[in-house]
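re: the backbone from monday

yeah here it is again, tokenized this time
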């Protein structure tokens, strides 16, 4: 079945619901600290599929993939750099099976954890420094991941949790130039002591959305870092710069609280659902969840948006 483009459906006036957290869900299923989450796509595919299906059953219009750390740059830490294509293709296939023919698969592409060698500097000066990577290498890493995700059945690439302009630019460029996937790109902001929202690299919501639009992404947005109420301020700032581009929000279930050594997210499904209509009024077109959210949160948001 041929699915319409997500951006086209949004431009027709529909508000969509995305999925929720993956990392915390995997941990509940037994993922241990230090394990590679993405390897579960090969070794424990039914557990991964159960997560995706849980969100689809809760009413999500789209579901991500278990591929956040699926670039060569991340997988090499686990000795899995030779399995990039296999892992990412499997990740997309699993979510496609869960989504069926009617829902979208928005494949997760996270940061590489690398710094890009500044333009004009000699790459040889950075040889042996594992923190740095050339622009061409990071482009190829994103290209390798994105093409495998498309082969596995993804509809879009969700380039997420970005903090730097350059990395986001090369990720968008790699996907746009080498696949037919729609491109979503979200940044993660935190509120500083001056009351401003910035990424850890100092990028504001205004600069983020301008960069995403200029790079050719189809959908912009924000994820993680904030509960749903604070996301209203972030999206309001983005909308001042661009009133047209579709915006996706994946909010945490509140800011984490450490209770007895365990990070706990305080916002209930009802808490998030109560604020979801206000987020739509601020300019969000797709609402889902990030850390701490569950299928119950997604179901509540779906119901609240339908009523609103």
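seq for it, each position gets an aa:
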């Amino acid at each position: 079945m041929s699915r319409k483009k997500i951006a086209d459906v949004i431009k027709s006036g529909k508000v969509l619901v995305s999925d929720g957290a993956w990392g915390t869900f995997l941990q509940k299923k037994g993922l241990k600290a230090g394990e590679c989450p993405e390897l579960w796509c090969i070794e424990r595919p039914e557990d991964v599929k159960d997560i995706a299906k849980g969100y689809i059953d809760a009413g999500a219009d789209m579901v991500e993939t278990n591929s956040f750390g699926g670039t060569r740059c991340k997988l090499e830490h686990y000795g899995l750099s030779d399995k990039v294509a296999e892992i990412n293709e499997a990740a997309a296939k699993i979510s496609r099976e869960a989504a069926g023919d009617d829902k979208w698969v928005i494949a997760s592409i996270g940061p590489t954890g690398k710094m890009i060698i500044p333009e004009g500097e000699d790459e040889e000066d950075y040889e042996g420094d594992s923190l740095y990577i050339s622009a061409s290498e990071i482009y190829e890493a994103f290209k390798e991941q994105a093409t495998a995700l498309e082969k596995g059945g993804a509809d879009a690439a969700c380039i997420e949790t970005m903090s730097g302009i350059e990395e986001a630019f090369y990720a968008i460029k790699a996907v746009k130039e080498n696949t037919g996937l729609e491109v979503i790109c979200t940044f993660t902001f935190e509120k500083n002591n001056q009351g401003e929202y910035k990424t850890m690299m100092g990028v504001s919501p205004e600069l983020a959305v301008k960069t995403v639009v200029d790079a050719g992404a189809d959908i912009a947005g924000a994820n993680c870092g904030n509960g749903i109420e604070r996301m209203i301020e972030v999206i309001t700032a983005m909308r001042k710069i661009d009133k047209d581009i579709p915006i996706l929000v994946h909010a945490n279930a509140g800011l984490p609280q450490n209770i007895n050594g365990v990070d706990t997210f305080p916002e209930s499904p009802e808490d998030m659902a109560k604020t979801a209509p206000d987020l739509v009024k601020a300019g969000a077109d797709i609402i889902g969840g990030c850390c701490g959210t569950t299928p119950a949160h997604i179901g509540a948001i779906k119901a609240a948006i339908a009523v609103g």
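Residues 135-151 form the longest helix (17 residues). The radius of gyration is 18 Å.
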